[in-house]
Amino acid sequence: MKDRRVAFLIVGVINTIVGFGWFALFEYTVGRWLGQYGYMVTLVLAHIAAVLCAFVLYRRFVFRVRGHVWLDLARFESVYLVSLGINAVLLPVLVELFDLQPIVAQALIVFVTTLVSYFGHSRFSFRRKKEVV
After folding, report:
1. What integer best gives the mean pLDDT of the chain?
2. Which one-letter DSSP state was computed for residue 63?
3. Whole-angstrom Cα distance, residue 63 to residue 126?
4. Is 60 exposed, middle or buried (CB count within 10 Å of its CB: 0-12, 13-18, 19+)?
5. pLDDT (0 to 100) of residue 93
């Protein structure tokens, strides 16, 4: 796909479904076993699984870069840590103060973190120096 924005959206939809799937899986297993605040453990576990999957998808199909795998992964994770921080603040607010189910709250938060993700990855994670011709 030539247009990076379209590729980002397609991979983003796939990544969002996969990431949300991880969240639901961990919430209905580990999160339920841990009680009232188990959804926060669910958030961390889903984050780890989703980031690894997303890194491969974005690197391969959207930004199409080579080399610097560990640097790219560190940058990629730093962008996702910002999203995780936003998520870690909003999730308890929506669950505890607004009495939403964790999965419903997470679905709402996805919209905010998607914007953070796009700008962070396009301008930082997979950035390469321009070659002088």
Report:
1. 87
2. S
3. 7
4. exposed
5. 96
Alpha helices, H only, the chain: 4-26, 32-33, 38-57, 69-92, 102-120
Total count of residues recorded for the chain = 133
The pTM of the full predicted model, rounded to 2 decimals, is 0.71
C-alpha span between 92 and 98 (Å, rounded): 9
Angle ∠(17,19,25) on CA atoms, nearest 5: 100
How far apart CA 68 and CA 128 sit, in angstroms, is 10
Q: Which of 60-64, 65-69, 86-90, 125-129 is predicted least confidently?
A: 125-129
Report which residue type is found at 24.
Answer: A
Which token pair is 39? 């959804």
* pLDDT for res 133: 47
Return the ∠ at Cα 35 (arms to 51 and 89), rounded to 5°: 50
